[in-house]
Amino acid sequence: MALIVQKFGGTSVGTIERIEAVADKVKRFRDEGHDIVVVVSAMSGETNRLIALAKGIMDEPVPREMDVLVSTGEQVTIALLSMALIKKGCPARSYTGGQVRITTDTAHTKARIQSIDEANMRRDLSEGRVVVVAGFQGVDEAGNITTLGRGGSDTTGVALAAALKADECQIYTDVDGVYTTDPRVVDTARRLDRITFEEMIEMASLGSKVLQIRSVEFAGKYNVPLRVLSSFIDGPGTLITLEEDGNMEQPVVSGIAFNRDEAKLTVIGVPDVPGIASRILKPISDANIEVDMIVQNVGADNQTDFTFTVHRNDFNKAKAILTEVAESLGAREVRGDNKIAKVSIVGVGMRSHAGVATKMFASLSEEGINIQMISTSEIKISVVIAEKYLELAVRGLHSAFDLDADKNATGV
Amino acid sequence: MALIVQKFGGTSVGTIERIEAVADKVKRFRDEGHDIVVVVSAMSGETNRLIALAKGIMDEPVPREMDVLVSTGEQVTIALLSMALIKKGCPARSYTGGQVRITTDTAHTKARIQSIDEANMRRDLSEGRVVVVAGFQGVDEAGNITTLGRGGSDTTGVALAAALKADECQIYTDVDGVYTTDPRVVDTARRLDRITFEEMIEMASLGSKVLQIRSVEFAGKYNVPLRVLSSFIDGPGTLITLEEDGNMEQPVVSGIAFNRDEAKLTVIGVPDVPGIASRILKPISDANIEVDMIVQNVGADNQTDFTFTVHRNDFNKAKAILTEVAESLGAREVRGDNKIAKVSIVGVGMRSHAGVATKMFASLSEEGINIQMISTSEIKISVVIAEKYLELAVRGLHSAFDLDADKNATGV
């Protein structure tokens, strides 16, 4: 007898047939005696349809009205899923974000949840109903409809789980869990039974886009156990929790993340004086270009080289800006490379293990892969390499850190 | 400088282009200095699309969830129209029924408005905004979404006009006003500049389906001047108001309504004893069949004939029920005819004019049309005739009561 929040994304509720399948799944849990709160997204395609309507009127639709518009997508799903549950003999009641009530700030299209009134949900649960809540939406203090931004249904799920002190928040997706790395690249990649919030955040931000990163942070902050499962295949999925003390034999590295969406820019021969980093990066951020990795090495002859990465789509724009900046700084030249990839090893085990970086670099070196940039944090090490070596690097690291499925009894 | 409520139906907002056209029209009124509250329906086809989704799950969808589902239709329109207005430099803000707030009873799918909080609207109007409200919907005391039933957007418009004490409630439709009769039947039919609420109700209930009858009753009750206009063609439309005292030369008959959706059933040779009418009609109403006209004549030999009309779709069902009833009553036989039409003359002028019925019957007689049933009220006289004579009867009456366009200078 647990209280479980289950979140189903747009693909899982994309047709009437799939909504019926979700209802079957929800009912199965409820028949086992659990209290269930379901959070759903808009049917797949619906949000894009609504956005297209708005774009038919204006290129940058008014945010307040955009939220009124797109929030209808989830509202349709909650009604349909509630009907499907009731038809199957499972009492249910739907709630929009505003009805729950999920109060947010007023930042339309990217609002943040401030509070949740759990009274309605508690009453329905105690009366034996499944509660079906529209993801992605809320209302501000004045009653204006807000949305949490794309993918925000995960956040709704976690927030409800936190408010209700649920035993688990289950996120149903089209994959059956979190993998050691992308199975399309490494065929011995295996599903992890467990991963920590911190690891998941590093994996997600590095390109393993199973969960919206914000929802993982949120879950970690409120210690809501999060489980990633498949909507279509039964299985235990991957449980994301706090790191457990004394967890015997925590693997050093939990997974290998990678990203080929980035491009590298270097300013060569920059005067090595204070304030140079901000003078280089300010025009970039002023142009709304996000910077990921930044590396500056110790200089010589009062000069240094300054390198950073941006999204590949921003490469040309950033390079043009940088060329002007370099000139004004008296730098020697600007070099760019958009054929790079970032590969990262992630694992809380790194904290207590020395030599992880050495092992990573040795593995890459064995394959003859040159490392262009290195960046480290407490639980991850990232390197930038030439894009053509990406698969080779990931496969080598996956094997070097004993992640291959055939080496582990719990693998699938 | 007036306060005007404007209601646009589904056809008027059926595409992005039409929504833009509505925005242009609204802006034109506002630029003249008027305060405008706009009520919109769902884009045409949208409500049916949503209903089809629900029917894909269950034949008789749960009413509460049905309201959650279909209310999204109008919510989409308010967002899009507000965007279009803002784009055109006309400040605007959208409100769902729940946001206004329009409070209704809890009768899902056919709720009745109980109160309207005008504070938000007043504030927006005073700040120079056009207020855009979703028609057809509200919330009950507990915050559940309700809908007013199909066509309920007209009712929303009138209710808002009443709450705001608006100078006029304009209902934009695909016709340019109320006509003396259907122009497809009588090519000399002309648009009425004015008609009273009572006349409009009789015209509407008799088949001139320009306005939802409930909204006309509502407008009459709160004395909200109602104007029917075309969304697509500019013009003064028809103003529906209270009957004015001393209105010189009120025409005797304002219009000719007709209806070919009915069928006639007669029980011949019923014992002429008290309680017979209810014994005949109760099984009919128990079967959810609505009865329109009822005629029972003075009997002879302790027997009488009992005739009534039902919707043509209910004819076979009603006849089967009646056959059983007739047997149990010892009646002689049941006769039915589904090739009939009802023709009515409507006009408040009848109250002060004698001989209107005589003139009507004479007109029909001149055309050799036999009258099968007659029913009268204070401002209308209805007759049932063979369907094949419908056009002939309507044209003759239109001419007999001086309604033809060429006889009247104000005609279009």
Concise overview:
Two copies of one chain form a homodimer. With 412 residues, chain A is of the alpha/beta class.
Main sheet properties of chain A: 8 strands, mixed
* Secondary-structure-derived class of chain A: alpha/beta
Q: Tell me, rounded to a whole number, the average pLDDT of chain A.
A: 91
Distance between the termini of chain A: 28 Å
* Alpha plus pi helix count of chain A: 12
Strand content of chain A: 25-35%
The number of E-state strands of chain A comes to: 20
CATH architecture of the domain at 3-173 in chain A: 3-Layer(aba) Sandwich
Which regions of chain A are unreliable across 5 or more consecutive residues at pLDDT < 50? 407-412
CATH-assigned fold name of the domain at 3-173 in chain A:
Carbamate kinase
What's the multimeric state? homodimer
Structure description:
Two copies of one chain form a homodimer. Chain A has 412 residues and is of the alpha/beta class. Chain A has a domain at 3-173: Acetylglutamate kinase-like (Carbamate kinase, 3-Layer(aba) Sandwich). Chain A contains twelve helices and 20 strands. Chain A has helices at residues 16-31, 46-55, 63-87, 97-100, 119-126, 152-163, 197-205, 213-221, 276-286, 315-329, 356-366, 390-400; strands spanning 3-8, 35-40, 92-95, 102-104, 113-116, 130-134, 137-139, 145-147, 168-173, 194-196, 226-230, 238-241, 255-259, 262-271, 291-296, 303-311, 333-337, 340-346, 373-377, 380-386. The radius of gyration of chain A is 24 Å and the shape is globular. Residues 407-412 of chain A have low confidence and may be disordered. The interface between A and B is large, with 36 and 36 residues.
